[in-house]
Amino acid sequence: MKISIFGLGYVGVVCCACFSKDKHKVIGVDVDKIKVDLVNQGKSTIIEQGLEEQINESVENKLLTATKNYKEAVLNSDISFVCVGTPSLSNGSINLGYIYEVVKQIAEVIKDKDTFHTIVIRSTVKVGTLKACQEIIEDISGKTHDVDFGVVSNPEFLREGTAMFDFVNPPYTVVGTNSKISEAVMSDLYSSIDAPIHYIKPEEAEMIKYANNNFHAMKITFANEIGNICKENNVDGHVVMDIVSKDTKLNLSPYYLKPGFAFGGSCLPKDVRGLTQIAKNLDLKTPLLSSLLKSNFYQIERGLDLIYNTGKKKVGFLGFAFKSGTDDLRESPIVDVIETLIGKGYDLKVYDSNVHLSSLLGKNKDYINSHIPHIYKLLKQDVQEVIDNSDVIVIGNGAKEFAKIVPTISKEKIVIDFVRVDKEKTSKDNYIGICW
């Protein structure tokens, strides 16, 4: 393929080297003459193992050149990668000025092109950037998206020091586009890389890089805070975290990484409080660990706001144990929601087959009688009774029976789902998902 790559900084120059290594004909574009000259001399603009050798080889094989002339680059390529910087502004938001400037340049050129052109945003950008780029291109070029051109969000996952390796050995490739033509182009381009390609919405692709990097930052901070507590207790923090990392069923897995409602139960809240108190007693600051319960409480508030915003007072809850398959009501966040609504005069009805059964057997009876007798009075044996007598239905846990019930609920009623019992549904019409 013929590829133009705008921006010869870290991401751009690595893309130049790796795409040309794969026998694509690449033109690097930059406003900085020094960077352009370096590439044309077979040299790298950054220090990265193996990069300069590949650039030199690609230049010698006439697979890689660099230029300041963006018109020449676009006219002689079928795909343009935008790899320019998105630096932080003083308020912390990102500066998209360089992105839009390049996109305008590309739009000016494709106005006179007869062939389809794909524009790929490789830089880290906020949600909605690709849509804005599409509109800019259509406005300037007069061309139509997915007819004359296509835009793609294709975030990179390169680590400094191992960027060359990471390019050809990614965990996956993300392609976010609404253009079927560009989707096919990207499939062909990445066909030599042994990694799954995820075709998703552009907005989802734009969010993934932020989610990844913030997750990495959180893991580093978490390990540091645990390490600090370990050290003050004469414990080797590396041993502790090494063992934590060996659990790929729960710790390093998708299990807990599903957006939804607040955590609860007999373990997590108690142990978060316990560890933060240990840190306080050692005069250690744990900003991340100390924020967990605050963030958890915010998710409860968010759930309440979704209910308040309906303007309805008759609310039915399907499931109020802290998770499906259990009758455990200890520190259930749904209980907090229900108690708050009772205090505000809402007309509530509750259904949970596991809680009802355990109360009859006496397993949960003492807790119910001593802690939530006012909620137990709201518990109904018949799920349909709860649905028929409520204007708002709240799905409180992921019991399998609720997934079958949701499609049968009248469109006149509002369904608020805290757990996503149907993985295919997103907020639309009378259905509201808390995080989707």
From TrEMBL:
Its EC number is 1.1.1.22. Residues 316-423 form the UDP-glucose/GDP-mannose dehydrogenase C-terminal domain. Keywords: NAD, Oxidoreductase. It catalyses: UDP-alpha-D-glucose + 2 NAD(+) + H2O = UDP-alpha-D-glucuronate + 2 NADH + 3 H(+). InterPro entries: 6-PGluconate_DH-like_C_sf, NAD(P)-bd_dom_sf, UDP-Glc/GDP-Man, UDP-Glc/GDP-Man_DH_C, UDP-Glc/GDP-Man_DH_C_sf, UDP-Glc/GDP-Man_DH_dimer, UDP-Glc/GDP-Man_DH_N, UDPglc_DH_bac. It is an enzyme of class 1 (oxidoreductase). Pathway: Nucleotide-sugar biosynthesis; UDP-alpha-D-glucuronate biosynthesis; UDP-alpha-D-glucuronate from UDP-alpha-D-glucose: step 1/1. It holds the Pfam family UDPG_MGDP_dh_C. SUPFAM superfamilies: 6-phosphogluconate dehydrogenase C-terminal domain-like, NAD(P)-binding Rossmann-fold domains, UDP-glucose/GDP-mannose dehydrogenase C-terminal domain. PANTHER family: GDP-MANNOSE 6-DEHYDROGENASE, UDP-GLUCOSE 6-DEHYDROGENASE TUAD. Belongs to the UDP-glucose/GDP-mannose dehydrogenase family. This is UDP-glucose 6-dehydrogenase. It comes from Psychroserpens ponticola.
